[in-house]
Amino acid sequence: MKKLIVSNKYNEKKLNNFILDSFPNLNKNTLYKTLRKKDIRINNIKVSSDAIIHTGDEITLYINDDLLLGKSNLKIPIIYEDNNIIIVNKPEELEVTENSSNLNLTSILKEQIKQTVYPCHRIDRNTKGLVLFAKNKISLDILTNKFKNKEIEKHYLAKVYGIPIQNHDILEAYLFKDSKKSLVYISDIPKKNYTKIITEYNILDVDKNNNSSLLEINLHTGKTHQIRAHLAHIGYPIIGDGKYGINSINKKFGYKKQYLYSYSLQFNFKTDSNILTYLKGKKITLNIL
Q1: How far is Cα 272 from Cα 151, in angstroms, rounded to an integer?
Q2: For labeling, which of 30, 142, 203, 281 is most exposed (least CB within 10 Å)?
Q3: Which of 151, 169, 185 lies at the terminal end of a domain, its last residue?
Q4: Pair (45, 125) in one structural domain
Q5: pLDDT (tens digit, 9 = 90+) per residue, 133-170?
Q6: SS3 for 127-140, per residue?
Q7: What residues make up the domain containing 181?
Q8: Are residues 188 and 241 in the same domain?
Q9: What is the pTM of this model?
Q10: Strands (E), 37-127
Q11: Do residue 165 and residue 230 come from a single domain?
Q12: pLDDT per residue over 21-65, tens digit each?
């Protein structure tokens, strides 16, 4: 949390400009999301959008200091490491790769281990869990090809509202990404500019008292926000998801962050793996359950 007092220079100026000038390394998306969550106050009054400020106003920001300052004291947990790869547990509120802020998982990890690393895939900013990096270009090329050929499985855990009728299902739909709105839309039928998606799930646990389920997700395709949007589309939104979920449900459970983890990576190599042959059959799993 930070508190600022508005100077004469920003009298009758916009709140956003004042905050971004005060914290030049703050990611704009983080600012907008914080406003939507009403985690910024003017004179102790919550605001949800840009506003006009005045000299002497007290601005309170409930934003992590690392995100505000664009530098990090974060210690990224390393789950597995060898001479060619490193797998880490990404915290939420952090992009995997470069963005308008200098604060991202790749740059933090480079600084932490004092070595260049190359992300082999991405997970959403607010999704927690396993991310695989290569330590050299040879490994990067191999792993990029393995992901393309579906020889690496990524499994997720998601806590959803509702209890699916089927214990296991493979869902097919079509997804459109609206980059301007940072939203995706799902259709059950093919449409222009929509891409086919396939999402497989298994029910791991059911809480009938709270009408919720814990699902294991296996992505057959990997599109932006696919899990969150696809599950919401079929009526089982992820609890805590502020974008595709239901706010009243999120409040009921007391979840401010989406319950979605990238919790397992499995190397199912079927073709030549060169220097990474030793990874064939290996499975890395976070102990979340």
Answers
A1: 11
A2: 281
A3: 151
A4: no
A5: 999 999 999 999 999 999 999 999 999 999 999 999 99
A6: CEEEEEEECCHHHH
A7: 155-262
A8: yes
A9: 0.76
A10: 40-42, 45-47, 52-53, 58-61, 78-81, 85-90, 118-119
A11: yes
A12: 888 878 787 888 888 888 899 999 999 878 999 999 999 998 877
